[in-house]
Amino acid sequence: MYIAQMWNYIDLIAPLGVVIIQIIQFLEINDYQINEDFNRSILSISTLFMWIKLLYVMRIFKNTGYLIRMLIEVVSDMGIFLLLLLITILAFGDSFLRLSNGNSEDSQFIEHFFYAGLYVYRMILGDWDTDTFGEISLPLVWILFVMCTIFEMIVMLNLLIAIISDTYAHVAENSEQAGFQEMAKLIEENEFLVPYHIKKQQAKKMQYLLLIDPVENIEKKDDSVVILKVESVLKQIENNKKDLDTSIKQMNNKIDNIVTQIVKIQQDHQKALTNEIQQLKAEIQLNKEKEVVQPVQAPAIDAQEPPK
């Protein structure tokens, strides 16, 4: 959808600001007094977004497309960090504000809560004035000043640099893909410009497969009849080779199954034969033991008649 794209809002804000400025100028010509702050604010915002729109155009080019992608990724990865930075800025700013309110009105170095955040932000950038710290709890003010400069300037800013470096390394490693991704998104964002009936004629749904290849990768081919015939024969040979390989593979599988069955049958027969041999050995051993245990009968002796 048109409203779902960030760049489309930038496209709308810039011309909308120009229209508002033209209306303001028309009213001024007719002696209507317009607030100068409002006039200059609209002019400033419109100018800013018109320049930002130039980044949208630079997404088309190969050398700048991935850089725009990198800028978007960096801003996206900085989201959580900026939230943490805002919390720490408000924490130190509120602390300075409480100490500032304890001084007299002329000695206060922070007026209200909004300026407290700006005060700490300027302190992060190195813009501070230690001569205006007032007189209330001056040692504590200096302690907070040192803590704020160490934590915000050293820890948080170096953490920000680490996040940006990590994002840069990730995008730079895939710079070519990032460039093509931006081009693809650019096409998607402007897809609505092509009428539906034209898109339907060019590419019917579920009928064509569109292959996109860079122009520099397309090799020039000879369209002669001989080359085409040779390519056709080679393609047919390749198909026959694939079919033959498939048949051979199926035959090998069948042979493997038969060999497996034969080996299994041999193992079963060998196992059965081994069992029978063991049974025969056991019977023979049992018969031998019976023969040894059976008692031997002594031969009968004829009794002699006594002499007369």
TrEMBL record:
InterPro entries found in the cross-reference section: Ion_trans_dom (IPR005821), TRPV (IPR024862)
Sorted UniProt keywords: Coiled coil, Membrane, Repeat, Transmembrane, Transmembrane helix
Compartment(s) of residence: Membrane
Signal peptide: none
Any single Gene Ontology cellular-component annotation: plasma membrane
Molecular-function annotations in GO: monoatomic ion channel activity
Coiled-coil zones: 234-290
Membrane topology: Multi-pass membrane protein
Domain of life: Eukaryota
Transmembrane segments: 12-29, 41-58, 70-92, 140-164
GO biological process entries: calcium ion import across plasma membrane
Ion transport domain boundaries: 2-175
Protein's name in the database: Wd-40 repeat protein
Organism this protein belongs to: Stylonychia lemnae
Gene responsible for this protein: Contig267.g305
